[in-house]
Each structure stands twice: as structure tokens, then as C-alpha cells.
Specification:
The complex is a heterotrimer of chains A (249), B (310) and C (252). With 249 residues, chain A is of the alpha+beta class. Chain A is built from five helices and 13 strands. Chain A is 28% helix and 29% strand. In chain A, the strands form two sheets. In chain A, strands 1, 4, 5, 6, 7, 8, 9 and 10 form an eight-stranded antiparallel sheet that branches. Chain A is globular, with a radius of gyration of 22 Å. Chain B has 310 residues and is α+β, with helices and mostly antiparallel strands. Chain C is an alpha+beta fold and 252 residues long. In chain C, helix 3 crosses helix 4 and helix 4 packs across helix 5. Chain C is globular. The chains are: A alpha+beta (249), B alpha+beta (310), C alpha+beta (252). Chains in contact: A-B, A-C, B-C. At the B-C interface, helix 1 and helix 2 of B face helix 3 of C. Chain B: Keywords: Proteasome.
Chain lengths: 249, 310, 252
Amino acid sequence: MNHFPEAWGRPRDDVYGAYDHSYLQTTGPKAHTSSPAVTGTSVLGVKFNGGVVLATDNLASYGSLARFTDVKRLRVFGSNAIVGFGGDVSDMQYIDRLLESIDIRENYSHHGNMLNAKNLHTYLSKVFYKRRSEFNPLWNHILVAGYDGEGEPFLSSADLLGTTFSAPHLATGFGAHLAVPILRRLFPEEMPLEEVSKEAAIEALKQCLKVLYYRDARSMDKYSIAVITKEGIDIKENEVIEGTELGFC
Amino acid sequence: MTSIGTGYDLSNSVFSPDGRNFQVEYAVKAVENGGTAVGIRCKDGVVLAVEKIITSKLLKPGANKRIATVDRHVGIVSAGLVPDGRHFVSRARDEASSWRGVYKGPIPTSALANRLGGYVQAYTLYSSVRPFGTTAIVAGWDSEAELAVDGQVGTGPSSGSGGKVEGAKGGGPGLYMIEPSGLYWVSSTSASASSPIYHPNPTILPGGYYGAATGKGRQAAKAELEKLDLSSGNLSLADGVKEAARIIYVAHEDSKDKEFELEMSWISSVDGPTKGRHEEVPKELREEAEKAAKRALEGEDEEEEEKMEE
Amino acid sequence: MFRNNYDNDAVTFSPQGRIFQVEYAQEAVKQGSVVVGLVNKTHVVLVGLKRNAEELSSYQKKIIEIDSHMAIAIAGLASDARVLSNFMKQQSLGSKMTYGRPIPPGPYPQTNTQHYGKRPYGVGLLVAGVDESGPHLFEFQPSGLTHEMAACAIGARSQMARTYLERNLDKFPDSSRDELITHGLRALKETLSQDKELTVDNTSVGVVGLAPEGSKGRIESFKLYEGQETVPLLEALERADGAAEESMEVDS
């Protein structure tokens, strides 16, 4: 038997045949991230008369393991915008630091940070698109909420491919399947935004979070919710879904 | 030995036979022609003030800012060549941003001063560049509260062991002045400029100057700063703002024929008015301080007149 | 051949702390024909006096559009100005591409006069632009100095224009868009030598500002008036001057 250190941990040649060195080649095609590691699930967002509300739960899963139970996935940008992150948590942290550096740079100008949510969404979607074009995507699906240049409520999504999509209510991840139908029933297409109250929007998101908690195995009952209005951003990060009944399990 | 005509003063990075670098000394002359700038380190914050001589009536009043923010918690004001000052600030911002890239947090003021000192000094080493025609005052507040790491998403488990020392405090005000030679002072009690380790006792932290002044009226300003007994650490930030305004007005006495604008900024502790950020002093407060400064000056004049009469 | 030992390059301080090369570059601006800029509450106006090399040649451009919300007026070396305007156009496009917003006008830090072998730009710029906070006018000098101005004039004989601007400074903020143009043209006229006058050929006017309340979009896009388009503007100037003269006669 070979006791030299370079053979430690290697399958024995006499048992398994010579080691296939092609696995260790440093030349040839390079692989970047091909799957997320620690992930957050759905992000939900609804526009209402005069603002937008976003919600996520506080869970970061490692595969099917509920690994971190205190992860805030709604990130505030300046005083004007919120970004809700689904997908890879470390990529979210990278983007969060990117946003921090932009906020610092914007505040160097005399007028402060003048980037609105729409500008931010344009920027982030380009970051995503650039990264996926390099075959090194940031593994997230995000919602950006705030106001556009005309001062109207703004809600739009961007994903790891750089795809953008905008609607009065949006959901990412499992929520795209479970929450959107509920939101569409509550706020039908023909219903003008003026008729959607802040309270109704918040109530709708709470209802969606509850359904998701029941049905999405990567969700939990602790959540964050952020309401953005002209008065500012009201963010609560340690809420608990009320009235859950899991006795039937 | 005079500098002119010897030939030793025509190029940067050249020593004269008596060991002087004349180009650096000439750069200091450019500083001495600039508007006066002062910085005061108070017990609960730092204040910066600068005298902006109005060179033309056509300038937009209040628009041309001379105090710049670096990251969120540092302010820089410089006297001398304005474009050089802007170059300096631009470098400071790059340093602060690269620090964040490595350490995921704000750069300590002392470390920033250290890096900028090195940068300015490098401009005295080569004949292909000229030294900075500015002396810059760098003021900052290193957070005394425990800051989250950039990109931190949660606080972790609420029970179990942790590595935190209860009640430990760091941070505090910092005030540094960097001259065209690259020279700057740090006090030996402070955290060493190259290491971001916080000193356990915030009252003697992070050091540099208690009060700094540069530009045309620096002599008068320094004399006034010395009267304040800053080393005892009793001056509050609110009083510091008033003193800074008064000192700029005193320093302006020698060039009374020229009009000027006063620009002031401050950085308070995390529980103070600016929450640890570098911001412009609010207009009302500045105007109040200016009124008080004018009153103080008139008072002095009257006293002098009385003496003359006697 | 040199005036003194300290003006050979842009990296030598004089014993008084001056940099002569930069000061000389400043002189290049004074060789260029005059441009004037002024601001009211909603608009910025640039006016320029164009020169032609000879009778049969065309006139040198004085006002260059950077973006729909920003333009520059130049005095000095036109080729240096082209380098700078191309740079500004790129920056502006970059901002529109990445953020979907027009770049705010402002003093941006520039590579300066601190390195050997580089010379300062021999051109002065007036930058006019609007952002959410309103109209802005900046003056850029070869030294790297930038100032935000309420009104400004640079180039040959610009002192006369500056005198006019200083005298009438308090009238600008409340004047209308058209009145502001007239003020600009009158400042420009002040700089002319005896045998010259403003014509459709040698006058350039550029205007950019905030759109009137209730209109679509916030910005009234930059508009350059040249050639025949300047006729109504020059006529307005003549009318205003005529009215002023008449009223003076009444006074006497």
C-alpha cells in the first residue's frame, strides 16, 4: 500500500484502478455556479393606492433543511426603494453590498440619493443580465418596490436571467404558483389601483403568506413585511403568521 | 540658503544641499493662499468649517460646496488648490470603498488618514508629478455601537454561546490634517493608524488633532483653537459649531475687504443629531452661529475702542 | 524663451505656489470667441458668438448638445472641447443605459494637471443642464476649477458681458424664458467691437429647462437655435432695445 501523503484519501489503485486525473484538470471549460446553495423562497408584492407592500418569510433553506430562521430578505435602498430577494442568500448579500456602495456614491452628490425604484430596477436587471451572459448568474429572483420618475407606485421583478416583468401584484418562487392566483382573484385586472387600499393589500399578502406556509415546504411562519408610501418606508421584520392550525398534520 | 536661482527648486523629488525639498515648500505656499479651514474635535462629534471667498458676484450663492463626504461617516475639507482637493477626496472615496470591499464595513478614520498620508507623500517622490497644493482636514466618527457587517441578513441564534464582550465600547471622533509633504499626526494613545483595532477607552480615542486649522488665516485660527482647552474633552458638539463659525470669522478679519460664505459640516455620535453620519450643519443652526460670531467680533472691537479711549 | 524658470511644465510650483502652465492655459480660453450662460428659475440659456476663418468658410460651432437635458458652450481650443464633449456624451449615455435616468449635471472630478507630459485642456466650458432640482449652469476652467454660476461669460472680451450680467443679475430669476434669451443676447452684444453686430450667421442660442406645469415629461428638451431660427430672437432683442431707448427719450 502506498503511504505517501499525495495518495491519502485517494481510492486505492489496486482496488479501483488508476486514478482518473481528468477530473482535476485546470484547463478546459470552466464551470461557475450551477445551482443555488442556501435559498430563500417566495417574495410577494402588491401595489395599492399610493404605495406598494412587499413581504417575505424569514427562512433560508439549505436544500430541504430549514437552516437559518432569522434571515431578513427585504432590503431597504436609500429612502425610496425596497428590494425583496428570493433565491440564493449569498448572492443576495453580494447584491446588498452593491446597493450599499451605490447608495454611498449617490449621497456624494449635493442632492443625495436621487435614484428611484424604477432606476434601481433597470440597474439590477442589467446586473443580472450581464452575469448570466457570462454564464455566472446571480441566483435570485427579486421584486423592486417604490416609485417611478413620475411619483407613481412602482413594482417590478427581475430574475437570474435578466428577465423583467411588471404587474400590479407579483410573486416569485412558489408564490408565483400559489399566491398570484389568490391575488388575481382579490384584485382583478379591471379593478383600478385607486380602489385598492393599503389595508386590503396588507391583508391579501398575509393571506398569501399563510397559504404558502401551509403548502410550501421551504417556508416558515416568521415573516417580514414592508409598506412603502409617500410618508416613507415602514418595515417590520419579526412578524408571525397568525391563526395557523397544524393539528391536522 | 535661498531657494530661488539655485536650480534645486525647479523639480520635484530633488533635495537641496541643506536637505530641503523646495517644490513641497512651494506647494505649501499654495495652501497658505487658500481660504481658511478649521476642524474641531468635540466630545460627542467633530465639526468642520471653511471660509469661501466670493471671487465673483456671478457665482450661485450656497451652491459651490467645498466640504466633501467620504463613505458616510467622514468629512474632508481642504485649503489650497481646489482641483487638487477634489482629487484628494476622490482618492479618499476610492480608499473607503476598497476598504469596504475587503472588510465589509466602514473605514476607521485613522486608517483613512494613514492611507491618504501615504498617497500624498507619493506625490513628493517623482519628478513626473507635482505635490498636492492642498492641506486637507479629515474628520470622522468611528461608530461606538456594534455595526452589522455589510450584507448581514440576520442576528443568528438568540440562545447559545457567543463571542461578544458585554458593554465593550469603541469608536469615537477622529480629526487629522494631511499636508503637501504627506505629513500627518496621530496620537500614540489612539489605535494605530494601520490597524482598525479599537481602543478600549473611547475618551482618549482615536486621536490626531483636537483642533486643526489651515489656509490663509491659520495663525489666527490656531490661536483661537488653543484658547478652547480642547484636550480636556469638555466641549460639546453644539458649542463646537458656534466656536468653529466664530474662528472662521476671526480668521477672516485680515482679509475683511473680501466677502465670504461660511460652509460647515458635522459628524455626531450615533445617538447625536447626525447619527454618526457626516452632514452639512442645518441652515438655521449655521445662521445662528454666524450671528453669534458677528456679535462676538463687534464686542471685541468695542472693547478695543474702549481701551484706546482710556 | 521662457518668461521664468517655473513655467516650463505643468508640474512645477513657483516660489509663490502658482502653476504658470495652468495659468497660461487659462489664456487660451480668452482667445476663443465669447459664450454667455444664464439661469432663471426654470431654464438655462447659452448664447455664443460664432467665428468664421474667412468670408467663404462656415462658422465654428459654439454650442454642443450632450443629451436632451444638457448642452455645453465652448471657448478656446475646439478640438479639446470635442474630446471633452465626447466624454460627456458617453457618460450621459452610460447613465441612461444602466439606470434609465438622465445624468445629473454637476462638477465631476476630472483627471487633472498633476502629471508630467499631460497638458491642461485649453478650453473653457459652460455646462447647462436640468435635473429634478431645476436648472444648473457650471463653468469649467482649464485649471480643473468648476463653479456653479447664476450667470457667466467666458472668451474674448467677455468682461463686458460679465459686467452686464452682474448689473442685471437680480432680474434673471424672475424673467421669462424669452426675456432670459434677450438678456443673454444683450450680454453677448456688449462684447462686440464697433464694426460688428449680431447676425443670423454668427449667433447661436441654446435653451434647456423644466417643462411647464401639466405637460408630458418633466424636461423641456434642449433646443438649439441657429441660422434663420435666430431671427425672431434677434428681433425680440431689437424690440426690447428699441423700447428701452424710447423710454429713455421720454425720461429726458
